[in-house]
Amino acid sequence: MSEPDQRFNQSEDLESEARRKTGKKNHQCFQCGKSYSQAGSLNRHMRIHTGEKPHTCAQCEKRFDRLENLKEHERIHTGEKPYKCLQCEKRFTHLGNLKEHERIHTGEKPFHCTQCGRSFTLSRHLKEHKKMHTGEKPFKCSQCERSFIQLGNLKEHERIHTGKKPHKCSQCEKRFFRLGNMKLHERVHKAI
Questions:
Q1: How far apart are CA 48 and CA 26, in angstroms?
Q2: Which CATH architecture has domain 89-135?
Q3: CA nearest 146: which of 177, 138, 162, 134?
Q4: CA–CA gap between residue 158 and residue 131 (Å, rounded)
Q5: Cα separation, 157 vs 149, whole angstroms
Q6: Cβ(145)–Cβ(137) under 8 Å?
Q7: Cβ count near 84 (within 10 Å)
Q8: Mean pLDDT split into 10-residue runs, the chain, 192 residues
Q9: What is the pTM of this model?
Q10: Residue 158 and residue 162: Cα distance in Å, rounded?
Q11: What is the 3-state secondary structure (H, E, C) of the chain?
């Protein structure tokens, strides 16, 4: 690279760094108006609109718009869990999962129901809870007319139709549709 080219690149880098530090955002998305201080950030953002996913997992061929997301996904295949809870040593693949887990120790419940005031550790638990207020039951049994708020409840119900009893008493081999029923039953053995 010639000396004038090097000076130009250095000057361009300095300008870009100055924009980043000052918060000046010269690169604007023509579709939604969001602005960025660096062209690369705008280019990554544009993938939201184009649907482009240039990064592919070599193991399962799932595609990602960002390299960081691919790297994080690959941990599913490698089993790597780089994030560790300092309270109990439990390890996690994703930082977000560690943050959610840490609320068990802190007792923090940042998600609040506006209708009844009940609080939840996870946003998905609040979302499921809200269905109780709306009466929404999106999970429908294909065998009968019953509907459920949660997918897990539907799966549990479907065992009635299939006859599958996955929960086995450790003392007498008796089997149950529901885990809760098996645990109640096991108390019989403890009382003896």
A1: 19
A2: 2-Layer Sandwich (3.30)
A3: 138
A4: 21
A5: 12
A6: no
A7: 12
A8: 50 54 78 88 86 91 91 91 94 92 93 94 90 91 92 90 90 88 89 69
A9: 0.49
A10: 6
A11: CCHHHHHHHHHHHHHHHHHHHHCCCCEECCCCCCEECCHHHHHHHHHHHHCCCCEECCCCCCEECCHHHHHHHHHHHHCCCCEECCCCCCEECCHHHHHHHHHHHHCCCCEECCCCCCEECCHHHHHHHHHHHHCCCCEECCCCCCEECCHHHHHHHHHHHHCCCCEECCCCCCEECCHHHHHHHHHHHHHC
Break the chain into its structural domains and give their ranges: 89-135
Tokens of 164: 């599958």
